[in-house]
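Lecture notes, part 5. Sequence design as translation. It can be helpful to think of inverse folding as translation between two languages: the language of shapes and the language of residues. The source text, in structure tokens, appears below.
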């Protein structure tokens, strides 16, 4: 079973990883460390898993309702997911070699700028989930703990 506590824990971990990675990445030599690389790939994995979970378990559940307002809410979050995935995929292709498991930073300033923008996009999504989607589901389901 999926609980709101599980979702909040995922959100906290993603936020923590993004903060630590951004701190390390500001110094160019740090980007080449195994620590920074591992943080980046863990972040990438957790974001992907979280987005899939929210899309399938939460939005998928909302789509099944007959009420149009509920479906519209699910559609907005699903549309946002599609856009974030597209942007994230382009970002990852630009700045890392997944096959080799390394960051490929040719222009550090551009990398930092795009990373800050990408991470802000993900953090904004997490904030919208926390402030809008989770309370919406709580009101619908009348539950405080179980989500799906």
């Amino acid at each position: 079973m999926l609980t709101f506590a599980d979702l909040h824990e995922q959100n906290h971990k993603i936020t923590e990883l993004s903060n630590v990675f951004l701190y390390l990445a500001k110094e160019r030599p740090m980007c080449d460390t195994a620590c920074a690389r591992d943080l980046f790939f863990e972040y990438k994995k957790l974001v992907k898993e979280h987005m899939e979970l929210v899309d399938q378990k939460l939005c998928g559940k909302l789509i099944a309702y007959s009420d149009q307002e509920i479906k519209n809410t699910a559609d907005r979050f699903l549309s946002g997911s599609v856009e974030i995935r597209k942007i994230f995929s382009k970002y990852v292709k630009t700045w890392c070699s997944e096959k080799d498991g390394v960051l490929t930073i040719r222009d550090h300033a551009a990398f930092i700028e795009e990373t800050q923008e990408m991470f802000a996009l993900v953090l904004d999504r997490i904030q919208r989930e926390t402030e809008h989607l989770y309370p919406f589901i709580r009101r619908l389901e009348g539950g405080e703990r179980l989500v799906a």
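The translated text above is only one of many valid answers, since several sequences can fold into similar shapes. Helices lie at 4-25, 34-63, 68-95, 108-141.
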